[in-house]
Amino acid sequence: MLKVLLVDDEVIIRQGLKKIIDWQSIGFEIAGEASNGDEAIELTEILSPDVVITDIRMAQSDGIELLRELKKRKTDCEIIVISGYDDFSYVQEAMAANAYSYLLKPVDIDKLYKIMGEVRDKIFAERKTKSEVMAYNTLLEEKITLKLLNGADYEKVVQDNPQYRFPDGNYMTALISIDRKSEPASEKTKAFLSLTEIIDYEVSISENHIIKCFVDNMKYALVISVKNDYCYDAAIKTLNNILTNFSAQTGFTVTIGISGIFRRANKLFRSYEQCNQVLAQKAIMGNNRIIDYILYRAGINGEPTINADAVISAMKSDDFNGARGILDEYFSDVIKRMNIPVSSVKSTVAETAIMIIKTFAPDSDTMMLMFGRIVKPILELEQIEIIVDIQNWLYEIIRSIESRSKIFSIETNNILVKETIALIHDKYDTHITLREAADALFVSTRHLSRCFKQETGMTFNDYLTLYRMRKADILIETGKYKISEAASLVGYSDAKYFSNLYREFKADRQIGVEKNKQA
């Protein structure tokens, strides 16, 4: 319905105008009434009427003055003057002040119906034209902006489109990307359509001027006016609304990369580069968030590294929690710094994984036994996007080794015994003795032997033998190593002696299995 404001200092006239026409049947509604020009101006500001019907002469203010004030304010409404004065000078003044029509009292109903119909059609025609012009300008603006974002020459774009000028002021670019998800294509299409609707709505109610550009079926770029801090906060609010509403409505998520602030349209491509640069960091920071280029650039310089030797040493000592602790520090440092390329993280993790695998599964058969597959770190990591998934991939490698290596676990708070066990795990494939262990730990053999037996229930040699058998069993299970070869690899030079020990080990383990079944 189009809104009508009635202005007349006589109540009876206003009431009559309300009743003589079925306003709704012709597409209008009476939105308000005023008894003078001053009230009319106030109501115009509040109601934004489409049509003002006013008397030309009123007790407190002149209708002509009202028309002139509305013209001065560039109020977008049609004005119909009703007057009891059949004076050509009044008509001239009214038309000069932008009145659409001039009617004499008493009002001819048929003539008023005709004029209101004309006004209605004029308003709708103008709105259609305005809408088409706005749609064209919007498409042109989006087309030009997308070209500039992709690095088109600014001067050539301006030359090719002389009718358009990129708005002055400070701008930033936001790149909105739907996070990839293993869903059917139809679901992804629905999600993208929902994102389009959400962006359209948020852009329409935003206090900022926003240019929306379709990039592909997973991304939108928004170029946002940020004249001051207030506008910047409003822009971030708009982006947060898009992020949260999209997740709530679709179950999918988006990650948004935002650029720094720029002042010239010929720098748009740089802002777009910044968005893509920070958007790549979602692999480190995770999805469903806004990543700011300014914060990204403020990250700590340099790249953390993994002390792979320390990780392997901890694993050889069966201190798998310690190994994970070293890796936890690395991944925490990566996330904290923000500006480390994901490719660099993958490279560091791949190098560490290769060293671990070579140490604990030196051939393909052992690898198959340990992991159930031939592990190819570089190729496997190429398929992973998110940093937490890279971390989990490495930890799964470690868990597989842990499950094969830890047949039994000894809990002890005795530092001397802990260091002795670590020494055995590190030197089991050499000719390590109680004396050498005691010398390395600066204690007597008698004191070390007593402490070790008290804490573990085994002698030093019993534990060394059991640990060697455990390592040998892994080698032999691959089917690649003979008894004699396995003996040499775990520290025995006498294959026959080793064979007897290994048979006892297997028999004892079988007895243990049977007992567990009975239990």
- Low-confidence sequence ranges: none
What would CATH call the homologous superfamily of the largest domain? Answer: Reverse transcriptase/Diguanylate cyclase domain
C-alpha end-to-end distance: 83 Å
* Rg over alpha carbons: 41 Å
Number of helices: 23
Structural class: alpha/beta
The biggest sheet, with number of strands, parallel, antiparallel or mixed sense and barrel status, is: 5 strands, parallel
Strand order of the largest sheet: 2-1-3-4-5
Helix content: 55-70%
Total E-strand runs: 10
**CATH top level class name of the largest domain:** Alpha Beta
Number of domains: 4
What is the name of the CATH architecture of the largest domain?
2-Layer Sandwich
Tell me the CATH topology of the largest domain. Answer: Alpha-Beta Plaits
> What form results from the Cα inertia axes?
rod-shaped
Strand content: 5-15%
Can you give the mean pLDDT?
84
Which secondary structure elements does this structure contain, and how are they paired or packed?
Elements: E1 2-7, H1 11-20, E2 28-34, H2 37-47, E3 51-55, H3 63-72, E4 78-83, H4 88-96, E5 101-104, H5 109-149, H6 154-160, E6 171-178, H7 185-205, E7 210-216, E8 219-225, H8 229-250, E9 254-258, H9 268-279, H10 282-285, E10 290-292, H11 293-297, H12 308-316, H13 320-337, H14 342-360, H15 364-371, H16 377-382, H17 387-405, H18 415-427, H19 434-441, H20 445-456, H21 460-477, H22 483-489, H23 495-518
Parallel strand pairs: 1-2, 1-3, 3-4, 4-5, 9-10
Antiparallel strand pairs: 6-8, 6-9, 7-8
Helix pairs in contact: 2-3, 7-8, 12-13, 13-17, 14-17, 21-22, 22-23
GO molecular function, one term: DNA-binding transcription factor activity
GO cellular component, one term: cytoplasm
Domain HTH araC/xylS-type: 418-504
